[in-house]
Structure formats: C-alpha cells, structure tokens
Amino acid sequence: MSIKVFNTLTKQKEELVTRNPGRIGMYVCGPTTYNFIHLGNARPIVVFDTVRRYLKYRGYEVTYVQNFTDVDDKIINKAYEEEEDPVKLAEKYIAAYYADADALGVLRADVHPRVTDHMNDITNMVQGIIDKGYAYEAGGDVYFDVRKFVGYGKLSGRDIDDMKAGARVDIGEQKRDPLDFALWKAAKPGEPSWDSPWGKGRPGWHIECSVMSLKYLGEGFDIHGGGADLIFPHHENEIAQAEAYSGKQFVRYWLHNGFITVNQEKMSKSLGNFFLVRDILNKFSPEVVRFYLLSTHYRSPLDFDDQKLQVAEKGLERIRTSLRLGEEALTACEKAGEPGEAPEAKTFSENIEKIRSSFVEAMDDDFNTSLAIAQVFDLCRELNSFINDDRFVPGSNPAQCIKKAITLFDEFHSVLGMIRPLENKKTDEGLEEKLMDIIIDVRQKARTQKDWAAADAIRDRLKEIGIILEDTPHGVRWKRTEVSHGS
Predict the structure, then answer these.
(1) Whether this model's pTM surpasses 0.90
(2) Are 235 and 92 members of one domain?
(3) What's the CA gap between 181 and 197, in Å, rounded?
(4) Which domain does 361 fall in, by range?
(5) Strand 260-262 with 302-303, pairing
(6) Which end of the chain is least crowded, N or C, by CB within 10 Å?
(7) Could you count the other beta carbons within 10 Å of the beta carbon of residue 187?
(8) Which H/E stretch holds residue 221?
C-alpha cells in the first residue's frame, strides 16, 4: 500500500512520491522564541513528530528539520518588556522549548537551525532575489515584488486583487505596493542588527524558512508542515521567495494541522486564551497530552477543556492495563515450563496481523491517528479475550501468542509515542539552563579579571563532558556535542 497525504497546494489527497526513493526531506516551522509554548503550539510539534515516526516505521530514511525563530519583532518587544537582552531571551525560551518538547516525547530534529546562525545565507538569497528582478531596496529595507511572481496565492487559494483590498502600507514603509512584504528590515535604534549590502538590519519573518529549508533539504524537498494559520501569509510567501530565487518547485507536499480551539475560538497568545504546556503537565502526564492531541485527525479542529484530557487519561489507562495484564500473563507463561494451552492460537495470530494491517491502512490514509488509535483498542480487546479465555493455560504455546501482541503494542508506541511511559527529560523549570548561566557568568568574570587560566579551564572541563562554549558578538552560547572517549 502507498501513503496518501492531503496536499494543501492541490487541495486533494495524493500518493506520496518522494524526490529520492526511500528518502524523505521534511521541514516543519518551529517556534518564535519569546514565550513558553502553549497547547496550540504543541499540536504541530506532536503531529509532525508522529508523521516523522510513522514514515520511519514504514522504512523511509527521514531528514527532519525544525527551525527556531530567534530574532523577530515579538522577541524584541518581549525583551524590552522584561528589560532583557533579546539574544538571551531567545536562548531562555529555546531551552524551555526543549524541556517541554522532550517531556512530550518529541524526538529532536536532525537539524534545529536558528535564524541568527544563517545571516550570510539570508542576505545572499535576498540579493539573489533582487538580481532576478523579484525584489527591490527602499531606504535600507528590501521588499518582495508580489505582482511579479506569477502564481502568488496558489497555496492559500486567494486572488491577488482581492488581497489588495485589505492590504496597507504602515507608517515608515516605502514599499511600492501594499501587497509587497519585507525580505530585509533596516535597523532601528536599540534593535539587534547585522551587516548587509543594504545597511545594518535583520531579516523579515518569511525569508528565514525559505533559506534554512533550502540549505538543509535542497530544492523540491518532500514535505513542509505547520499549522493552518501559517498558510497565509507565511507559507505563501515562502513559496514566492524560494521559487523566484530558484526557478524550480520549492516543496512537493504541504501539510497543515487544524487549530486547537477554546469555546470555538482559536487558541492564541493574542486572544489570551492559551494554556501553557508546562502548566498542563502539572495536571496530566505527557502521554495523556499526546493521546489527546492525536485522538483527532490532524487536519480537524480540536476543542480544549480539562474533560477531554480526562477522557484521554481514562483511554490511555485502558490501554496500559491491557498491556500490563498481558505482560503479567507472559511472565506466568515463561515460569510455567510447560507447553500450556493457547485457545485458538491460529485465529489469534491472524487477528493480530489484521490489526497491524488496519493500523497501517489508517496511517497510510493521510496519517489518520484517530483510526490508528482505534486499532490499539482492538488490540487490547483481542489480548484481553485471549488471556481471559477459560481454556487459557500458562505455558510456552500461549507465550508465543502474547509476545506477538506485546510486540505490536511496542510497534504502535514507536509511532504514537504514548503507550509506554515516556522518559521525562523535562528539567525543573529550566534548571540546566540556569546552571549553565551561572557557569558562563563565572567564566566571564574570570575573563574580565584577565584570569585566562581559569576561563580556559572552565571551557575545557565543559568540553570534556560534551558542552561547547561559543563566544559570539551577541554573548556566549553553549551547545551539546558528542564526547570523545578515545581508544
């Protein structure tokens, strides 16, 4: 069977045909790091983590890229409010993102690129778009000339003339057409800025994802994912920039998850109706939150309240109870030392295979996790019926049947990431980040006092345990690396 996905670009389900057989390049828009993630942010994070897991389950080699927007108007404004350096603020919320995402069992991306690490790539692409006649400079800003790009609106289905009616030019902007959008913004006093051919400034929001996805995945990569709120203008503008620059198709398949709503309104920070993931995890386990987020097909809206999480909690408990009873029965079988009695073993094995096939069929149909979870409950019923049968006698024969069921539970967990307890890597309110801040401050004081030996010793000892310090124009940054143990 082939996998079918709903492509927002064509507005229909299509067979997934990858650029390179057996390999998939996948880019998902990550958070703008100015606050803790809320449940609406968590939905695409968990959904596309599950999509990635399933593609790997089906045998694909997946290169998964998820960015961090670590310079943006929202970050700058929040930094002013908190009297914090914007770079340090972004670092704080990147660390918080990792803590929350790890807690939810979200696998780390193969690459987590940051905007601030790709300024040369961004300015090079902006210049390339100018050279090809699709952008222009005005007073240190650079704007994309929307009307020159034939096909603008093809992702969102919007007509360019209808869009113009609601467009505007803000005070201080010098764009030629209200529809034009910024590729590069001239620096304002007190803002972080970088050198460019048009003077100091910083990138517009949309250009970053085009640049980083092309850098790590190349032209015509397979899947670009994100929330439905990003279809316009963000993803529409990504297509325009990338295809104007390369002259080739940017992405094959566009996948978008539906909103989480509260009383039928989209959950968002701007409406003030959002619930932070870390607060929810104080009341419910991360596996319950994953179960809730995956209990509805990813393209459908999902309304939030505590009762729905309580329903998810009860559903997950049913699954885990069945798995626990199965494991206890298996232990009894292994201790018996006798062949035992496996009631209708052939039928049981056939039913297990049917459940596996139905799970795959559900996930192949545009990653229908709702139907896939139904197969998990079918597996529970099948196993419960088997071990509760009056003819069941512990021994090696029924053990083989139970092992098949438990193996299937583990297969389902490898995709859904919620059946087994997750390793909760969430730190105590960013404890790791706070400890590193203290260490970096001690090292900076040593450098200020010209105690180079102490500063170097701190750097070298950290390196020994797999932490690299990078001295940048915007402060010290740290990252993990592999520890070399020698021969």
Answers:
(1) no
(2) yes
(3) 18
(4) 306-416
(5) parallel
(6) C
(7) 16
(8) strand 221-227
Highest mean pLDDT among 281-285, 459-463, 480-484: 281-285
- One-letter amino acid of 444: Q
On whether both 402 and 313 belong to a single domain, the answer is yes
End-to-end CA distance of the chain: 46
250-295: pLDDT as tens digits? 999 999 999 998 866 777 766 667 789 999 999 999 999 999 999 9
Phi-psi category of residue 248: left, alpha or beta, with phi > 0 → left and psi -120 to 50 → alpha: beta
Q: Specify the pLDDT at position 297.
A: 98
Do the domain assignments include residue 74?
A: yes
pLDDT at residue 473, as a whole number: 61
Q: Which amino acid is at 476?
A: V
Domain identity same for 394 and 472: no
φ, ψ of residue 254 to 5 degrees: the values are -105, 120
Residue 292 lies in a domain: no
State what percent of residues in the chain have pLDDT above 90: 79
18 and 143: one domain?
yes
Residue 208 lies in a domain: yes
- HSE of 166, CA atoms in CB hemisphere, 13 A: 6
Q: Is the domain of 167 the same as that of 313?
A: no
- Say what angle helices 86-103 and 73-82 make with each other, to 10 degrees: 100
Judge contact between 65 and 27, C-beta under 8 A.
yes
- What pLDDT shows up at residue 171? 54
Question: Do residue 447 and residue 378 come from a single domain?
Answer: no
Task: Select from 436, 465, 459 the least CA-distant residue to 447.
Answer: 459
Q: Where does 419-451 have alpha helices with state H?
A: 431-448
